[in-house]
Structures are given as structure tokens and as C-alpha cells.
Amino acid sequence: MATQVHVFVSGMNAGYQRFYLTRKTPSTLEEAFTIALREDYSVSASQAFDGSRPLVHDPEPEPMEVDAIQSYRGRREPTSPSRQSSTRGSRPMKCFRCGKPGYRAAVCRAPSPMAANATTVNDVTAPNNGDDQ
């Protein structure tokens, strides 16, 4: 039984209750619970009537400042595609693949152009099925 009491006392946060439990040396686990609860109640009750220092409560969620978010939203650039094309300038969008206006190269259906200075190399000695590795 003494090991359970020792584990309970050593598992408590360092503070007045733990100090009080080590001085009292309870013999059973139930006695340790009773002493800890009594000390917790007496400490919290004395803090409630102490007007010199404020009570420490659990942190509560703070409300968001929605006005700041709404004013920030008013300063942002528009993100819709129809509004973006009008703010980019007077030049129309032009495909880099085929050169036609109105769409991007990512959606172009034209075959990709061959580079003028690219050379192709056919390696005849490479095995076809990988057995010669």
C-alpha cells in the first residue's frame, strides 16, 4: 500500500499540497486522497476570499476581431479569374505553346513543339528486356 501512496504523492504537481502530503505521511491511498482534497479545498477557499490578488481561472477562448478581418478583406486583390484578367494589363492572354490568344499552354491541345537545337540519340547497344544488366 505504501508504494501506491508514494506514487500518488510523487505524481502531484510541486506545490503546497504535495509538501503537505509529504509532511503528513498518510498510511493508505484513501487517506492520501482525503488529505489532498482537503488541502485543495482550503487553498482554493483562501484564494477566493483574498482580495489582494486576482483569481486565476482557466483561459477562456477570446472572441475574434471580425472587423479587422473584414477590413483586410477589402484591401485584397480580387481572386476570381474574370477579374484577374482585367487587372493584368491591356495585353490579352497568349498561349506559350501555339501562340493563340485566350488560354494558357497548360490547357492547349496543340502538340508540343520540338526544340530547334535538340538532338536525339538512339542507343542501339541498350538491351530491350533488361537481361544484359
Q: What is the element layout, followed by pairings?
A:
Blueprint: H1 2-10, H2 16-24, H3 29-49, H4 66-75, H5 81-87
Write up this protein.
This protein is mostly helical and 133 residues long. It has a domain of 48 residues. The chain is 42% helix and 0% strand. It has five helices and no strands. The relative contact order is 0.06.
Short summary of the structure?
This protein has 133 residues and is mostly helical.
| SS field, number of helical segments | 5
Return the average pLDDT rounded to an integer: 69
Strand content: under 5%
Query: Structural class from helices and strands?
Result: mainly alpha
What attributes characterize this protein structure?
zinc ion binding; mainly alpha; Znf_CCHC_sf; nucleic acid binding; 5 helices
